[in-house]
Amino acid sequence: MIEIADLDLTDEGAVRVYFEVEQAAQRADRPDAVLRTWPQLQQMLLQPSPYHTRQSLVARDEGRVVGTAELALPQQDNPHLAGLQVNVLQETRRRGIGRELHDEAVRRARAERRTTLLGEVFTPVDGAMSAGLAFAGALGFEVAHQEDHQSLRLPLPRTRLAGLPVGVEGYEILTWGPRCPDDLVEAYAEMHTRMGQDAPSGDIDFQPATFDVARIREGEERTANAYQQIAAAARRTSDGVFGGYTLVYLPHGEDYVVQDDTLVMPDHRGHGLGMALKSRVLRILAEEHPDRTVIHTWNGTANEPMLRINRELGFRPVERELEMQRRDQL
Prior knowledge:
Blueprint: E1 2-6, H1 12-27, H2 38-46, E2 52-61, E3 64-74, E4 81-88, H3 97-111, E5 116-123, H4 131-138, E6 142-153, H5 158-162, E7 171-176, H6 185-198, H7 213-223, E8 227-236, E9 242-251, E10 256-264, H8 273-288, E11 294-300, H9 304-313, E12 316-327
């Protein structure tokens, strides 16, 4: 008999086992997986954000944890959505454990009046079938959006860095670390909102979130528990209007970097700002963080302008991420 139960968040040992099972299940199929770290998991589960709540489940076989599931519920945006993640250890698959975790998570999502379920699965770059894709398809999920996970070895050679643009005429590039300067944060929040509106999202049934200063500050405080961040923004010198930004995260205790947002505002496109912003961050990483060995990024397969910039920088695809979606009726 498989027992499905809530994760005991007061038991650090139980949370650690949850983390280890999640890691093992994902890495069994994905040699290039970038997974949440132990500090990040602790933060997400033990210091929940006001913008999301999470329910964490474990599947036990004779007392041994063999699977996990997480249900993520947005609280201030998209109240119809539920994010679902299911992991089962490779040696215990094909016994219905994943389905039992899925069914319990869906029961809870319906109790919260959530009608659209979202989850991520991964395949090789060529789109070949994977265990995750087969599992999601059998449960009625369909592909709503696709992104290429790409990576680039760090630090870039000095000769390569020397060939990258140092700026764009008519703009200044500003950089900061864990906290956006007070005089820039309103513009920064507006760009975050625009990022959600402009980033390709395929057929995902959601409305982009609106960012204000409070949401930016809350995110910065939470991020500092698990990551160091570096941000760069381009500001037009003639009028002080911001033209774009890029943001990377450096997980504590790891040797890699996660490239998050890169946005160029519509009225500022065509000047090379995207390349200049990314180049500035790569220089900072080479100079201040030479211990980091690789940077990862994700781009929608339809986002050709950003894919072209990444190819020029030397990024290469390592796997494909599929956003899976299912609409249920209550």
